[in-house]
User: Fold this.
Amino acid sequence: MSLLAPVNKIGSFGTTQANKAVSEKKEPSAFEAIYQSAIGLLEETNRYTHEAEEAQMSYALGLNDNIHDLMIAQSKANISLQYTVAIRNGILDAYKELMQMQF
Assistant:
């Protein structure tokens, strides 16, 4: 909840339900924010992997003779993939721990 929420409610005091639904902007939930962050991480990992593959192909075809660029692209892709897998493992561990809880 933002600090401006009480001010926005005062401004919409006299509006109808239809106008109220249109005028209020829905803030993303915590789950939605985490989900969007995870999707962004996967897209970034995928982009680094494609860049590494393109660098490898251009080096193999002789279009680029700079092996340093190839190694940097491959390192970025590898580190990004390791980070993604580590986050996935952490989420799975947390899920397993939640599933083992007894109420």
Notes: Residues 1-14 have pLDDT under 50 and may be disordered. The radius of gyration is 23 Å. Helices lie at 5-11, 17-23, 30-60, 67-100. DSSP finds four helices and no strands in the chain.
